[in-house]
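Let's practice the habit of predicting before peeking. Look at the sequence and jot down your guess about where helices and strands might fall. Then scroll down.
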Amino acid sequence: MSAPPAEDLLQQWESEQARLRQQVLEEDTEDWQGSPDFSGLERVGGVDLSFIKGDDVNACAQLVVLSYPDLQVLYEDSQMVTLTAPYIAGFLAFRETPFLLEALQRLKKNQPTLLPQVVFVDGNGLFHYREFGLACHLGVLSGLPCVGVAKNLLQVQGVNKSEEHQSQIAALQRGGDSFPLIGASGKVLGKALRSSDKSSKPVYVSVGHKISLDTAVRLTHACCRYRVPEPIRQCDVF
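Done guessing? Here is the structure:
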């Protein structure tokens, strides 16, 4: 069993999160975001870190870029990486961001014309213990608009799998329907989205950086052929 993380490491990470949190932009910053059909958006990215069962040190860092709106693969990057930071709930970004950022930087260096205009992150953004999840971390460090899309509900800030939550899910009738995830403070931290008519199980969408929540939800739905947005789904495919 690994030793618990040093208290000073957690304090250092918390202060880094607080510092970077100040740089998050929770509004639309790009022209295409204001268009009803996202006119001007041509490339959407997806990133994910996947593990081999039973191995929590070696992982595969994946980046895909798809065309928009037809969602055809334009670029793929898959690299085996060795994680050095420990897994600690609420600090996932310190473990994963460096490798996802490297993938984006490789693309920017080698094929800059294929750099995505927005990145879907398999994880949370503002819907996080300290309102600074993986999608925020990657967004601030990369400077790109980012959307957090989680498959499972993070039970945080008073949001939990209550009977009310389950009944709200049941009330989502069709793809595109959503309801807000409201923290104990009253702030809307994200939305549960029924992303496809074919799937009654929602995904949890939150702002990463340089996008508003409503736009993030609308874009997530527009990029879903199935339950998970195609840029993230393609990461799991190849």
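How did you do? The mean pLDDT is 94.
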